Amino acid sequence: MRWEYRRADQLTRHDIVLMPEGQLRVVSQILPPRNGNVHVRLGATWYVFACAAEFPVDVRPGRGSGGLA
Fold first, then answer.
1. Separation CA 1–CA 32 (nearest Å)
2. pTM reported for the whole predicted model
3. Most distant CA pair in the chain, distance
């Protein structure tokens, strides 16, 4: 995997995110930013992050924004 940091408000569906605890999670749904926060469903769990929070995202060739390889 090749990692690139992205802001929480730049995540897209199907992105693979490396969580701070070391687990991998897939963005299954994301809601538009509101009041400086974004609601992101990673796997089956909803999270609320500040829009500016940054996460490592897998950016392997063929993974494209929101696409499946």
1. 27
2. 0.81
3. 33
The pLDDT tens digits of the residues spanning 11-40 come to 999 999 999 899 999 999 999 999 999 999
Residue-wise DSSP of 9-68: GG--TT-EEE-TTS-EEEEEEEPPPBTTEEEEEETTEEEEEETT-EEEEE--TT-TTT--
C-alpha–C-alpha distance, residues 63 and 37, integer Å: 26
b/e code 16-25 from CB counts within 10 Å (16+ = b): bbbeeeeeeb
Compute the distance between CA of residue 57 and CA of residue 4 in angstroms, rounded to an integer.
5
